[in-house]
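Collaborator request, handled under Task 6.
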Amino acid sequence: MGSDELIANLFRISQTEQRLKKDNIQTEKEACNTHNKIGKIVRKAIKEAGRNYARKFAYTKKEFKTIRKRK
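Structure tokens returned to the collaborator:
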């Protein structure tokens, strides 16, 4: 992971945190939706700036469940 990607991730995280506080989001479902929404905005901005940041991950359902359990 390069520095640009790390910076983009930190920016996404900080913007999501601010939105959660601003909108007083309480449920996990709302938080996940907000996280995804902010991620799309950040990826779109990066793409418009001329870099193709969007990566596609091919996780199986079993791998996805394992990843979710780690959190």
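The cover message to the collaborator said: "The chain is about 70% helix and 0% strand. The CA atoms of residues 20 and 30 lie 9 Å apart. Please let us know whether this matches your experimental observations."
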